[in-house]
Structures are given as C-alpha cells and as structure tokens.
C-alpha cells in the first residue's frame, strides 16, 4: 500500500496544500506557467495547440484536487461502490466538458482572450478519445458523467487502446481507414506505473488435495503479461465529485527489453516479447454489433477483467470484511457480454485462491453482477470455441463446465424430462466445434439482466432469452431505457439553446433535473421565445453549413431542410433505404418542369458514419451515397433543391456540431433490430424532429412527445418474421418506385452499376432481409408529409418546442438512478459543496 505521511509532518503538507485557480487572473497565471515550464515554450512560441495543452493542464490541476478528495471521501465512508465494466468508453473531448462541469468556462474564455486566443479554436485542438464504436461506448461515457454528477461512488474500468477507432477518410467516394494516433498528446490520463497486475494466459491446470482432503486446482505455466493502470478523472456537473475511469494498458512482464537476447545478436526477438504483450491493448476491434471470435479479442477481454477484478478485490480486502459482505460493498455491471469472463474470474479467485466453498462463492458472484444486453442481433451475440478457451484459459474452461453442470442440474430438477430445454439453455453449445455462449453465462452469473428500451427488453424475454425467463422467473429480467447526458448533449453542444431554456425554467437546474424542461411548454406561444428559438436553429445550421463546405467543398443553403442520418453504417440501420429515397427524390425532381421545381422544398441530405473495415455491404452503401452526391450536387437542373453530403470521420465532437443543426433525423432501422438508439434522443433534445420506425427507444420517444410530433412509418416488429417468411416462400415483388430507383442505378446514372449490384440484389434477389422494399412506400410518403409540415414553419416550431419540453425522461441521470435502485442497490454519497477545496465558479 502507498506510504502515508506520519502525523508530525502533515502540518507542512497542509501549509503547502495546492489549490487550483479561482479566478481569471489565477487561471492566466496557471496557463502561462504551464506554457513556460511544463511545455518549455514562451509567448514567442505559443500556438493554439500549446494554448490547448496549457489550458488543459490548468484545468487538470483543478480536477485532480477534487478527484483526490473524492477518492478519499469514498474510501473513508466505506460505502458500496459500483464498477462499470465496459470494453468501450467513447468519451470525445474532455476540455470543454471539464470547463462546463466545473463551471469555469467563462473564466477560461476571458483568460484565453487576454492571452491572445479564441476559446473555440483552443477547444478544437483536442483529439477525441474515441475508445468506442458507437452507441454502446457512448452510453458508457454518458453513464460516467451521470454517476459523477449524481455523486455515486463509481469507477469505470476499460482498456487503453493505443489506437482508438480508426480515422475514416473518404477518397474518391470510398472509405479508407487510417490509424487514429489519439495518444500523441493526452493530458487527461495519469499513468500509474505503481499500479500493475500480472495477468496469466495459457499454461495448464493440475489438481491436488489439501490437508482437509479438499481438491484444489492450480493454474500454472504459460505466459504472463503486465497490466498497467492509467487513470482518467471524470468530473461531475456542479458537484465536487470527480470519479475515476481506470484504463489498462499491456506491457511485457519481463520488462521492456531482453538484454541477453540482444547481446547474443537476436536483435529482433529481443523486442518481440514486448511487442507481443503490447498488442493486447493496441487496437479496438472496429465492429459494431458483430463478433468475430478472434483469439486476440478474447485475450483483451480476459486481460481487462482480470486486472479490474484484482483491483476491486484488493480494495475490498483492505476493508477486512468477511467475503459474504462482498456484494454489500461491490456491484459490478457487465456492459454487454464482453466482460462476462469476470463472472468466472471472481469464482476462480474465491474458490482457488481464497479457499471458499463453491456454493458460497457462487452466491457472492451472482449477487455481485448485473448484465446489460444491448442487442438481439444473432451475429452480435458472443460465442467462443471451447478449443480456444482450453488453450488460452484452461482453468476458466473447467469452471465454466462446472457452472454449467450445476445450472443444468437445477434446470433438470425444476423441469424433469425436458432434454430439449437442457440443450437450448446449456452454456456450452453442442455444435461443431463446441462453443461457449457468453450471453447465457452472463445470465446465469448475474442477479439481474436488463435490456435498454421497453420493446427491446420485451423482445429479449420472448425470443433469445425466453427459456431463461421460465427458469429464473420474470423478476430477474428488467428494463432500463437508455438516456443521454444533457450536459454534453445540450449545454455543451448547443450553448445558446441551453441559455434560452434557462430563461424559461428559472435557472440551470434543468441540467440536473431534466424533467424541468416541461416548463418551456408554457412558452410555446411566446413570440420572442419562438423567434429566438428559430434564430438559434438557423445559427446552428449556418455553423454546420460552414463545416460541410470546409470538409466536402459542397455549398449548402442553411434555410433548406436539413435531413440527417449519422450513426454506424449497418444494413439493419438502413442507410440504403435513405439513399434509395434520396434517389427517388432526385428522379422526381428531374421529371418536373422548371416551374414545378420552383415550388419544391429544398433539402440537404446529410450522412455520416463509419463502416467496419471488413463489412463489404456497408462500404458499398458509403460509396453509393458519395456517388449520388457527386451527380446530384453537380446537376444544374437541381441546384439548391437537393444536396447530398457524406461527412467523413463521424465522431463525438462532430456530433456536437451536427446534432443541433438538424431539422429531421433518420432512425429507420428494421423494426425489432435497433435495441434502443440514443442519437434519436440527442436530436429531439436539440430541437429537431425525427422520422423513425416503431423500434427501440423511438417508441418511448413517441409516448413522451406525442404522435403528432414524430414521423413514424413502416412495418411493425411483430410482422417482420412473417414478411421475411413470405419473401422466401412466396412471391416477392419490389415496390414499383424502388424498382425505378434500381433502374436508374443499373443504367449507370451514378457510375459503374457493378459497384452497387450487391445492394440491389440483397433486396431484389436475396430475400430483402431488412425489409427495404416493404417499407419503401411508407417511407417516401412520410417524407412527403415532412415536406408539407416543414413548409408550415410556425407549426414546425411548435412541434419542436413541445418535443424538447417533453424529453425529460431521457436523461442518463434517470437511467443511473434506476440502475442504482433496481440493480446495484447503492446510494449517492452526499457532498457538501463547501467541503470542496476549490468552490465552484
Ligand atoms: O445500448 C446502447 C446502444 O448499444 C448498441 O449500439 C450496441 O452496440 N449494441 C445498440 O445497437 C443501440 O441500439 C443501443 O442504443
């Protein structure tokens, strides 16, 4: 344990206690000091990136003081903590967020201006922390913000990928992936070279009998890799609570470099061990909703959960409590199945290392874990081959077999003579090769399982986890509808709207109690309020138009309707439906006379999102969007009536520009496939309306904002299976309007038709699994309704204000309180704000 300073010397420490800046002058002093000392530069040599570095360090100094105090407070209070295990944390930029959460952005703005910088340019310098693929990773980041803002004692645990998600470039209309060197300069992390854990892989297991005749398993040999902790402070909003996100990085256990090999001339292999070890935390697998069963991924998962559990158990053991109290002190949430090995690892620690009896240990394990499922898509459900497990984690495989045996025995007792049931729920799938079903292991090893939106939670109970509901009873399964943090997704992304809302809700409390938004509905007819509302939307659209011009060269008219679809590119999210709809619009416009065209409503179709590098169809969709954009944007007949742009490298900081500028956004997944979606919430909160299917959280958004304020279309989840069946066994004719779109593509209107053949045959010849044709007519009709609604600008603004007023439910604070009460059984740790060493600005 770290040495603590003896009593007599503490006075000196208190006398010299560090304090962070409290006003503009002190902020400037800190910035100049960091420029001149930490960065070794001067006013003659200080560009925007140096200003960013120094400003971040000044804020970091402030955060760190609160962070230390928070950790001390939580340790002394000895209260229960929650640990959020997520392989992805899509944090985005930290500086702006820290300034706002601490409440010192105005001070920084004025201070930076004194020193010769515009705050916006300084913020722009920061590289996104893009340690995630999409919704799942961003949800984890929103949850960390809420946990800290609500003063819950909580830690996040993840991996410190050297390369976050790849950077996307669009070259000649194609996606090209380039590495993301986000760690080149990152002031927001603290390497803890003293916090390391040795992690074992491979080897073999032998069993012996101890003095009392009990069998003990020993896992020996194999390879050891060192996990090094990197800590990231997570500041709460308007509270001193600053929680910790601990990210593990891998290193060779034997040290940096093998001198003996080097001296004997084996230059390359002298660094090979180091490189092999570092590979574990080198890359984030760039798949969203898809698992590929690669050994390195399983290695990452074990490396991370083993290091995290070691840390959690070490902290618990310091309290000297009995093991049975572990679940009273520790709640661990599994963000999807990626950390499911933690269930097995905790059982191993308790049985093999701490000598507990199996049943006692298992009781502790189950009461500690909760599991969140984020998808019903079969291709996303993790399975690992038994052979791979046997090779990489031999002891864990034995434990999984035992867990499965005891579980199946209990099932057999409750449901005698149902062999099919045993086969269906077995953690081991009896396939060739045999597979370990991670979702089943997570269910068996947790006391609660939740889905992320009402429809999704119902679907998992009636489809993929149906048997488990019968076995464990319905109470084990619950729903926590996702949410978003209003701090980043309103206050930070849309500061003017946040200011305007503040004038109607009586202060900033709506940022910590989002239900207070309902007060703005009283002002829905207030002329000045409406006028300013419209001005803010236009200003946000102007800002996005500038970004579009700078990044794509295309000029767009800010008074056109901005129609946005930004998210991972995936067939189930149906960007292909959107671009086919855009082509239909283009063909319709082309067929009009110039006079008729003048009466049409101008639109800008904006796309953004990454395709997994190996996802051929998703890449084809990106290519078609860009090819359509090239033709449409250069068509003189069309002019401003239609523009199509693809924004490259969509990420959190780009979302902060795009979201506030949308008029309509698209959430158009095949019904029953999108577990929740969270960008739908962000767009509505920013005063944009949505077009969507009856899927995921769209359904609850409709319930909250009212059917008149959302544009729903398409088939329902309950009809999807029958439709798919009819495509396969009945006659499947493509919607006539869609057929015309296909004709245009096949005639070469958008370039070589071969490039897009896969997208067409998927619909026309291969069963149209995502029901693009079935939903096309209703999609087109709904867009026509949107055009009409948008022409009535006053009616549109009423819809937007009403919707924002009713979005209070979708705060991630509400979700976290639901998890805390229903799953984790933890309480916030009250903080006296004056107890903070720094006070709030
Ligand atoms: O629950 C958060 C999000 O997770 C996903 O992104 C995922 O990776 N499984 C889902 O696809 C989203 O629907 C969901 O909002």
Q: Care to describe what's here?
A:
With 841 residues, the protein is of the alpha/beta class. The protein folds into three domains: 1-77 and 105-120, no CATH class; 78-93 and 128-481 and 830-835, Rossmann fold; 486-810, 3-Layer(aba) Sandwich (Rossmann fold), CATH 3.40.50. A nine-stranded mixed β-sheet has the order 7-10-11-4-1-12-13-17-18, with helices on both faces. A six-stranded parallel β-sheet has the order 21-20-19-22-23-24, sandwiched between helices. Strands 14-16-15 form a three-stranded antiparallel β-sheet. α25 links the parallel β20 and β21 (642-647). The radius of gyration is 28 Å and the shape is globular. Ligand CBF binds at residues 134-136, 139, 288-289, 374-375, 452, 482, 674-678, 696.
Short précis:
The protein is an alpha/beta fold and 841 residues long.
Considering the chains and any ligands shown, give keywords for the structure.
841 residues; alpha/beta; Rossmann fold; 6-stranded parallel β-sheet; 34 helices; 24 strands; globular; disordered C terminus; binds ligand CBF
Biggest sheet layout: 9 strands, mixed
What is the radius of gyration computed over CA atoms, rounded to a whole number of angstroms?
28 Å
The unique ligands bound to this protein are: ligand CBF
Number of domains: 3
Unreliable sequence segments? 837-841
> Which bin fits the share of residues in helices?
40-55%
At CATH level 2, the architecture of the largest domain is 3-Layer(aba) Sandwich
CATH superfamily of the largest domain: Glycogen Phosphorylase B
What is the total tally of β strands? Answer: 24
The name CATH uses for the topology of the largest domain is Rossmann fold
**With helices defined by DSSP (H or I, 4 residues minimum), what is the helix count?**
34
The coarse silhouette is globular
So what's the CATH class of the largest domain?
Answer: Alpha Beta
Helix and strand composition category: alpha/beta
Strand order of the largest sheet: 7-10-11-4-1-12-13-17-18
What is the beta-strand fraction?
15-25%
């Amino acid at each position: 344990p770290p040495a603590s300073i003896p009593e007599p010397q503490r006075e000196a420490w208190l006398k010299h206690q560090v304090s962070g800046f409290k006003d503009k002058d002190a902020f400037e002093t800190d910035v100049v000091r960091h420029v001149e000392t930490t960065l070794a530069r001067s006013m003659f040599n200080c560009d925007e990136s140096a200003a960013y570095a120094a400003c971040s360090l000044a804020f970091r100094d402030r955060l760190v003081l609160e962070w230390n105090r928070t950790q001390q407070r939580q340790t002394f209070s000895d209260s229960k903590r929650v640990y959020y295990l997520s392989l992805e944390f899509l944090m985005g930029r930290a500086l702006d967020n820290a300034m706002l959460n601490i409440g010192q952005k105005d001070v920084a703005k004025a201070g930076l201006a004194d020193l010769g910088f515009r705050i916006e340019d300084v913020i722009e310098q920061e590289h996104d922390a893009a340690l995630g693929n999409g919704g799942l990773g961003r949800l984890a980041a929103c949850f960390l913000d809420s946990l800290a803002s609500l003063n819950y004692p909580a830690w996040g645990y993840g991996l410190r990928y050297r390369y976050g998600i790849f950077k996307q470039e669009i070259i000649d209309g194609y996606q090209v992936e380039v590495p993301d060197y986000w760690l080149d300069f990152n002031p927001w992390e603290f390497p803890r070279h003293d916090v390391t854990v040795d992690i074992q892989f491979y080897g073999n297991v032998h069993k012996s009998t101890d003095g009392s005749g009990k069998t003990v398993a020993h896992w020996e040999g194999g390879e050891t890799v060192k996990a090094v902790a990197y800590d990231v402070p997570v500041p709460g909003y308007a509270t001193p609570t600053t929680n910790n996100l601990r990210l593990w990085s891998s290193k060779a256990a034997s040290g940096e470099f093998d001198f003996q090999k080097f001296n004997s001339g084996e230059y390359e292999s002298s660094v090979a061990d180091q490189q092999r070890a570092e590979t574990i935390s080198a890359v984030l697998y760039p798949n969203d909703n898809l698992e590929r069963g690669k050994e390195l991924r399983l290695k990452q998962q074990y490396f991370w959960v083993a290091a995290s559990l070691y840390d959690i158990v070490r902290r618990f053991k310091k309290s000297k409590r009995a093991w049975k109290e572990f679940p009273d002190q520790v709640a661990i949430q599994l963000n999807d199945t990626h950390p499911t090995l933690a269930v097995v690892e905790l059982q191993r620690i308790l049985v093999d290392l701490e000598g507990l009896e199996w049943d006692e240990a298992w009781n502790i394990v189950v009461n500690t874990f909760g599991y969140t499922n984020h998808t019903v898509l079969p291709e996303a459900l993790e399975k690992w081959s038994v052979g791979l497990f046997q090779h990489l984690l031999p002891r864990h495989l034995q434990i999984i077999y035992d867990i499965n045996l005891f579980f199946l025995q209990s099932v057999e007792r409750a449901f005698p003579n149902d062999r099919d049931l045993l086969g269906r729920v077995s953690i081991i799938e009896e396939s060739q090769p045999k597979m370990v079903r991670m979702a089943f292991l997570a269910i068996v090893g947790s006391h609660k399982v939740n889905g992320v939106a009402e429809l999704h939670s119902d679907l998992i109970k009636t489809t993929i986890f149906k048997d488990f509901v019968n076995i464990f009873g319905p109470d084990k399964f619950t729903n926590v509808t996702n949410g978003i943090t209003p701090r980043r997704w309103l206050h930070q992304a849309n500061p003017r709207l946040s200011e305007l809302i503040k004038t109607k809700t009586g202060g900033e409390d709506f940022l910590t109690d989002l239900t207070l938004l309902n007060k703005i509905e009283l002002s829905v007819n207030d002329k000045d309020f409406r006028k300013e509302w419209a001005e803010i939307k236009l200003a946000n659209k102007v800002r996005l138009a500038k970004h579009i011009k700078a990044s794509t060269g295309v000029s767009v008219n800010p008074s056109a309707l901005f129609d946005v679809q930004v998210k991972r590119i995936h067939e189930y999210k149906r960007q292909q439906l959107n671009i086919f709809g855009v082509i239909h619009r283009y063909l319709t416009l082309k067929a009009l006379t110039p006079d008729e065209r003048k009466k049409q409503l101008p639109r800008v179709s904006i796309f953004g999102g990454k395709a997994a590098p190996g996802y051929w169809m998703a890449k084809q969709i990106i290519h078609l969007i860009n090819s359509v954009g090239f033709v449409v944007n250069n068509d003189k007949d069309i002019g401003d009536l239609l523009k199509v742009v693809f924004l490259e490298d969509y990420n959190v900081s780009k979302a902060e520009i795009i979201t506030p500028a949308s008029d309509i956004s698209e959430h158009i997944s095949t019904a029953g496939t999108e577990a929740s979606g969270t960008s739908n919430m962000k767009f509505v909160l920013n005063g944009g309306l949505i077009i969507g299917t009856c899927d995921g959280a769209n359904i609850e958004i409709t319930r909250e904002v009212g059917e008149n304020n959302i544009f729903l279309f398409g088939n329902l989840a309950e009809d999807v299976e029958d439709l798919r069946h009819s495509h396969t066994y009945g006659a499947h004719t493509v919607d006539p309007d869609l057929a015309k779109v296909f004709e245009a593509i096949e005639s070469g209107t958008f370039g070589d038709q071969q490039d897009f053949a896969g997208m067409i045959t998927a619909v026309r010849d291969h069963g149209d699994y995502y029901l693009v044709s079935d939903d096309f007519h209703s999609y087109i009709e709904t867009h026509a309704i949107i055009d009409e609604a948008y022409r009535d600008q006053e009616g549109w603004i009423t819809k937007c204000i009403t919707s924002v007023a009713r979005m209070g439910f979708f705060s991630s604070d509400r979700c976290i309180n639901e998890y805390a009460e229903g799953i984790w059984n933890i309480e916030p740790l009250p903080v006296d704000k004056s107890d903070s060493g720094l006070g709030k600005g």
